[in-house]
Amino acid sequence: MGQDTAGGVSGAVQGRGMVTSLSAPFPLPGPAQKKGRALLRRSSRVFLKLENLQPSGSFKSRGIGNYMLARLRSPNNPPTNPHFYASSGGNAGLACATAAAALGLPCTIVVPASTSPLMIQKILAARGAVLQVGATWKEADTHLRQELLPRDAGGIYVPPFDHPDIWTGNATVVEEVVAEMADGLPDVLVCSVGGGGLLNGLAEGIEAVPQWEPTLLAVETRGADSLAQALAAGELVTLPGITSIATSLGATRVSEQTFLYASQAGRHIASQVLSDAEAVRGCVLLADAERLLVEAACGVCVAAVCLDGRAERVVPGWGKDTKVVIVVCGGSNCSVEMLAEWERKFGGLEKVMDGGEAVGEGKGSMVYSGLQTPPEEKA
Predict the structure, then answer these.
(1) What is the chain's percent helix, strand, coil content, to nearest 5?
(2) Could you tell me the maximum CA-CA distance found in the chain, to the nearest angstrom?
(3) Half-sphere exposure (CA, 13 Å, Cβ side) for 96?
């Protein structure tokens, strides 16, 4: 089964083609949908690229799946008994397990003690073997590399984000957006940034489209903002730790390629940092409007675009005709109970609107939106 599936691009492994269309322009709630819900402006057209519907529940299926297929096709890999190993207790580990199951091949996911029971259950349900070692990802990864891989002649290491084959897999998001936007290409693409694998893929995909220069907004939460801090410092920065609830953005250091893309002049890539409270509000808005449950790492992109005035104040030329695609990256470490707990923790409307202490800094650059502006809202 592994050999047959690896011979072609499999949607069940790589995710490509599993999500076939953007949503209709995002039907944002009215100006005051319910008590305690954020007020929204409507100033542009918003579309969703639903990566939460990928086989593993996130965009990670694209890059991780492509990387795994590339390893099986390579003549340098073991010809018999391949076994995949990953050290992510998050969405990359689940993507590896999901792809390995589709290939009919074994995989072992080494996770740190901080990994949630929910994610361990999901990896096990995907038929991955789970080994919990160490307090941090680095300790889990070190154990995998030093103790497990040397003992397995067929072992294949699967990195979470920092490899060209992963970026190329993620670039297929852009291919599909280009094919699906029948009325013209978008002006802005919005994505979350953790280690940078998604941003790298989007940038690679954009480069392949002649005469198209959209703005790429890279969104992070405060406490997981390794890209924003690197851009501010003018060099790669390693965070001392992750303090945000958006743990899927929890790479303490972005990839070198991500920093190069984001810091090069003329690439139209910008970074914005919002708070955990705003990220939660984005999750609530997406659940209310589209009945989609996503992690805070994904909700922060919805917040950047949809909460009143966030990205509008940093995006040059933003207007009612601006076409925006939010890459709904997904994420499986979430539940109805977790979302309710986040809401209780971060409070209501007053904590995420412009007067509140929890408002994101909005520094760096880019994006904000809604549907067509009703006449009474036009300034």
Answers:
(1) 40, 15, 45
(2) 68
(3) 30
